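Hey, quick one: can you model this chain's 3D structure?
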Amino acid sequence: MSFGVYIHFPYCLSKCPYCDFASVAEGPEHDRYARAIACELELRAEAFRGRTARSLYVGGGTPSLWAPEAVASAVAAIRRHVSFAPRQETETTLEANPGASDAARFAELRAAGFDRISIGVQSFDDAVLARLGREHSGREAVAAFEAARHAGFDNVALDLIHGCPGQDLATARSDAATAAGLGPEHLSCYALTLEHLAVDVPMARAAREGRVAVPDEDQQWEMSQAISATLSEAGYRRYEISNWCRPGLEARHNRLYWTGGEYLGLGCGACGFALADPAEPWKGGRRWGNHRAPARYFADVEAGRLPEAWSEELDAPTLLRELLAIGLRQVQGVDLGEACARLRMDPAPFLDAAQGLHARGLALLSGAHVRLTERGLDVHTTAVLPFV
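Sure thing. Here's the predicted structure for all 388 residues.
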């Protein structure tokens, strides 16, 4: 089973109006937060004893605002408690926003042991960036990529968003072309989502009230098709609904989520998942989410308490349904036979569901292996309903 470590850093310079992540526009408490991560790790380490981690991911928020020496302290604490695979087999990623203050830290972050950086560009169009509430410009986005290269990062990921207020098809295509022209190893291209979020964000309220116009589903689909064609022509391979990469450079940490792997989530707003016994996954597991507010998070961990806002027990049927729903986001699909055998579930009803999708042109079957067609990927949420 895959296993990875995730640290959530909740601090940002400003709060984007579309963002529902656990983030706050406050000055970071650099050293205190690193100490809190180490405290939480001591409370959770026993649940992950015997695992070997193959990824470490620092997300947010804006982790590139975290003082490099404080990041290094948190990472050192993790390496003291968690066994990692050899460095050549381990992916270590930190998210960054464009901007001079972030880019100035890239060399120090590289020296701290990070070998991959993911830059939240979102768009290269200044008007689109302004409507998204982003603090950087298109020129600064390009400069951030160049700074990452200069700092020694030979594995750089860029994030784009399409379907933004005021964005049209030409702008979405241009963003993809500009990103591909820079030559990153990985690209994530997400559609703006304002429904079913963790919190009711300002942009969602503005859209409901008619104060902000966003492209409809058909327009978003046209944008996604244009982006896919642009990236494919540039030599990128789509391996998940919203993710493209150079051959062999898939995001290892994200893939563990899509394949049912375990993850040790640490920090304000972080989520984690551990099986009761990795050797016997049919016994189920437990998932949790930490407090989203830094004050509540600090209060618990500094008092020696787990900082959990919620937790849930997951039995084998639930794990299988989730694995199929999330795993089918991958272009490669899911081996139903293997998944059902691992969780001691009868594959027959799931194969019947897959046959139904095949008949509708939404999936392809090869024995017990199922993967969605391009049409199926476009309507993934609907396509996976028979499995959940």
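One thing worth noting: The chain has two domains: 3-256, 333-387.
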